Amino acid sequence: MQCGTNQSDDRYREVEYSVPATTSFARFEAGLQTSADGSPDQRVGLQLFVRDQYARADQTVQEAVRTLAPNSTTTFAAQIPQGTAAVVLRLTCYLPGSSLRITDPHLIGG
Question: Rounded to two decimals, what is the model's pTM?
Answer without folding.
Answer: 0.86
